[in-house]
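INTERNAL AUDIT FORM
Audit reference: QA-55
Scope: verify that the stored structure record matches its stored sequence.
Auditor: D.O.
Record contents follow.
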Amino acid sequence: MAQTLQDLKARVAVVTGASAGIGEAIARELVSHGCPVVLNARRRERLEALRRELGDEDVAIAPGDCADAAVIEAMLNTARDTFGATGRPAPARDADLVVINAGRGLGGTAITSDESQWDDMIRTNILAASRMIRAAGKRMLAMQPESAIGHDPEKHAWLKSPRDIVILGSVVGRHVSPFSSFYSSTKAAIQTLAEGTRRELGPKGIRVTLIEPAFVTSEFQSVAGYSQAWYQSMVEKFGPMLMPQDIARLVAFVVSQPAHVHLSDALIRPTRQEYP
């Protein structure tokens, strides 16, 4: 019998780095499928504007530094308290779809990059993701006791309630970039962290997915310090580039799979980008 994709209307999501680019596109995509979302980013005014546009019934915000443990707790508590009771029997009240998207880039190598930016990039790309994985994973485990895991769909409710942690990595975490190898090292760490967590949580019915985009046109390039002229040369070489909406559609597809199906790694490039 053909399997159908899961209905996202029954889910509760949290998306970090949601004020622009890929995170904003993912938020829009999930809401378009009826999934309520808690948005996080440092720029409160952008989150508030997005909430006004998409509607209070589907969007709540928890602004702040995503590496701060108190902000992480605020995100997850907001998801539980705002959306968790809607049509959901206890104890499955916490977010069951967490997208760890917040991150930043940096041009250069260990020799040439701006060392004054290293701490912030490591904090955002590695520590924030690690803390979010821990906090979200613990809550999902509490909703998904190990004794409930099994293969018999007649006996195990977990097959009706997917749980997802989606982590945004980068193609350069797998294929080291010659022009941003220090940034690449942080995304290589995320690749390892995602796979290790998948092996830990997958047997307990929780999917951990790594999405590794290549060039995506967004404000990421300017924040990372790449010159407009350099990026335009990449567009001429590899374009058309990916857009944030392309990544958002992929995320929605991954988390819409039946609970026993896991697309655990997805590397997505512009068609003409051969490397990295």
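Auditor finding: record pair retrieved intact. Residues 87-92 have pLDDT under 50 and may be disordered.
Action required: none
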